[in-house]
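User: I'm curious whether this sequence folds into something compact or stays loose and floppy. Could you predict its structure so I can see for myself?
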Amino acid sequence: MKSHKVKGGGGVLIHAVEAGNPDGRPIVFIHGFSQCWRCWGRQVSSELADDHRIVAVDLRGHGLSDKPREGYDDSKLWAEDLHAVIRSLHLDRPLLSGWSYGPLVILDYLRHHGEGEIGGIQFVGAVTKLGSDEAMVVIAPGFLELMPGFFSTDAKESAQSLESLLRLCFPRGLSAADLGRMLEDSVAVPSYVRQALFSRVLDNDDLLATIRKPVLITHGGADAVVEPAAVDQHKARLAHAEVHLMPGVGHAAFWEDAPAFNRRLRAFCAAL
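Assistant: Here's the prediction. I'll summarize afterward.
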């Protein structure tokens, strides 16, 4: 496994790891709110790596990437972060796979750079808009109840809320070791970053309607963070998208049923 630091938007250093087949089609995995590249461990070290060049990114403010105080409201900076990873690592027509908040970053990239340099897109438990009634209607009540704690500057209060979020994301449960590791990654994200992420106001419906590259929408049928009704929102603008609804699986489908997730993604990539 290789580790990279590339200069993203505004000079912020963005961390990414690389594994797998260096000659295979690249897949770029983009994590969600208050996590990091390590949540993709069951993809980085899997059969996907036999055929694909796997890259997992730490978003700005997360993991080993820089954590500036400002800039999280600037779509172009997010776009430049992802663009820098694609260009600096010389990724040839990568598939961009984003979880939860991650698709918002993919859409930031598409808004500023278009889809000419990518091969396809995967939305996983995705949100594509923020800061409106229409955006909030697909966010589950259990998540909304936890939000005040995410933004707290009290370490104990924020840690309790983030642990509750992890338990909401993984309804089948996590081992003590996995829960501890993911919570460690969550609390390492400063509260000002968490608050800034949800201070954005975004509506990407106009952009979704312009996407022509293949799209795979993957969603857990038991998602308790982003309700499965979000799939209908996305399909209304992405008529050509394929849908992989995973019954009984929660928000982190790539973790809870990694074999099924990986098989479907591998087949989708083979058809690009």
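Summary: DSSP finds 13 helices and ten strands in the chain. The radius of gyration is 17 Å.
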